[in-house]
Design a protein that fits this description.
By secondary structure, the protein is α/β, with parallel strands linked by helices. Strand 11 and strand 12 form a beta hairpin. Helix 7 runs parallel beside helix 9 and helix 9 packs parallel to helix 10. It starts with 7 loop residues before the first helix and ends in a 6-residue tail after the last strand. It binds adenosine-5'-diphosphate, iron/sulfur cluster (SF4) and magnesium ion. The site of iron/sulfur cluster (SF4) has 13 residues, from loops. Iron/sulfur cluster binds next to loops.
Length: 340
Amino acid sequence: MVERAFSVEDTLLRGAGATPMLELQSVEKRFDLSAPLLRRLVSGEGRRVLRAVDGVSLAIPRGTTLALVGESGSGKSTLARLAVGLHRAEAGRVLFDGLALDEVLRNPAQRRRLQMIFQDPYASLNPRWRAGAIIAEPLRLYRLCANRAALRERVAELLAAVGLAAEDAEKYPHEFSGGQRQRISIARALASNPDFLVCDEPTSALDVSVQAQIINLMGRLQRELGLTYLFISHNLAVVRQVSDRVGVVYGGRLVELAEAEELFATPRHPYTAALLAALPDPHRPGAERQIVGGEMVNPLAPPEGCGFHPRCPLATPVCRRERPALRAVRGGLVACHAAA
Ligand SMILES: Nc1ncnc2c1ncn2[C@@H]1O[C@H](COP(=O)(O)OP(=O)(O)O)[C@@H](O)[C@H]1O
Ligand code: SF4
Ligand SMILES: [Mg+2]
């Protein structure tokens, strides 16, 4: 391929120009599910290693949102956890603002810059703590307030930023609705003045109307605070609304990466096309949805070649033999032998 000053790969994988907020370089995460050695010796069974993330590279320019989409089990949450250091990669590198993530996590002044929001705010909020104490925890941890009065004031400010009242600081998580609890998670995440938020299915447990409110809130906070988001959702309608760029994950691999508008207008990978075909048609709300046929790849025994070939309508013999590399095509990057 011809080298250009800023190739599509540079822009999408490494983030041409300024240092990206987050960069993954060929990261891999495996889970060893093997039985204990003695049992394996007796039964003769081999090791069982699950490749949850298998060589993913991408970059997220600052102030933008990259969404990751893919079916359940494709490796999205594992990627999210790798990005904030809740998992360590077995291979590859994770860079945060140009620094090795390990270095960032050891330094509180850097560590506070990345935060994560989870799907289930009820599980991630301590039920025995009042909302005020939950939000104040990072303020105390990173010593961001000089005294109690400043702490109380900052908690009230954070509650206001997420659309809650100062009095809500006195309530316990169970006294809030699901949407309000997610607002508290967001307030806590914002407490340390982060630059980067990893949001793993932040609205998936919420009613549709509440989802929209949380999405709007996150959009406003991004604009006001200049935040960078890694946003994970299996809901493509939500992704379309929030993302600048979209990465499609299948069987632990990135199979397509493109600007959101481009990807929704012209999906290049057959799997992306199948996911989009499963979107409800806004012009025919009642119409039956087409779903991706066949079984999701078994990560303990992925097929040879392209992981999608058992389900792909375009598969040819080469797809069963050769794993397609992620490469630049017009409009983005795609890992498919058939993509032009
Ligand atoms: N802690 C873990 N131990 C073992 N397997 C795991 C663990 N976390 C995830 N996995 C497996 O890794 C694969 C990817 O999971 P995950 O990242 O949660 O996918 P997604 O978020 O896209 O649904 C799945 O097969 C899942 O079962
Ligand atoms: S490489 Fe082959 S099997 Fe894989 S998505 Fe492309 S056409 Fe389908
Ligand atoms: Mg997940």
